[in-house]
Amino acid sequence: MFTPKPDESLRFFIDVMGMTESGREGDSVYLRGWDDYEFHTLKLTARDRAGVGHVAFRCVSPQALERRVREL
């Protein structure tokens, strides 16, 4: 996610949503949520305007992916 208020956004995702910081790189902070086994669940990046840069979904099988695609 792109955010013009990186400090406020970080506090929200940590204090309200219960995520934990898993790393930093440049203007980005990586957050992990709900005991996720991956390095990060969400990446916050400081930008002039709020927005979404990339969205991805994990699926347990090709069939599960196809179901998600149909639903979306």
List the helices and strands and how they pair.
Elements: E1 2-3, H1 6-16, E2 20-25, E3 28-32, E4 42-46, H2 62-71
Parallel strand pairs: 1-4
Antiparallel strand pairs: 2-3, 3-4
What does this structure look like?
With 72 residues, this protein is of the alpha+beta class. The protein has helices at residues 6-16, 62-71; strands spanning 2-3, 20-25, 28-32, 42-46. The chain is globular. The protein starts with a strand and ends with a helix.
Strand content: 25-35%
Largest sheet: 4 strands, mixed
Described by the principal axes of the CA atoms, the overall outline is globular
Q: Could you estimate the helical fraction of the residues in percent?
A: 25-40%
The H-and-E topology, N to C, reads as EHEEEH
- State the helix count: 2
Radius of gyration: 14 Å
SSE class: alpha+beta
What kind of oligomer do you see?
single chain
Mean pLDDT: 93
How are the strands ordered across the major sheet? 1-4-3-2
Annotation, overall tally of beta strands: 4
Distance between the termini: 20 Å
Low-pLDDT runs: none
Please tag this protein with its features:
2 helices, single chain, 72 residues, alpha+beta
Structure summarized in a few sentences:
Helix content is 29%, strand content 25%. It has 72 residues and is of the alpha+beta class.
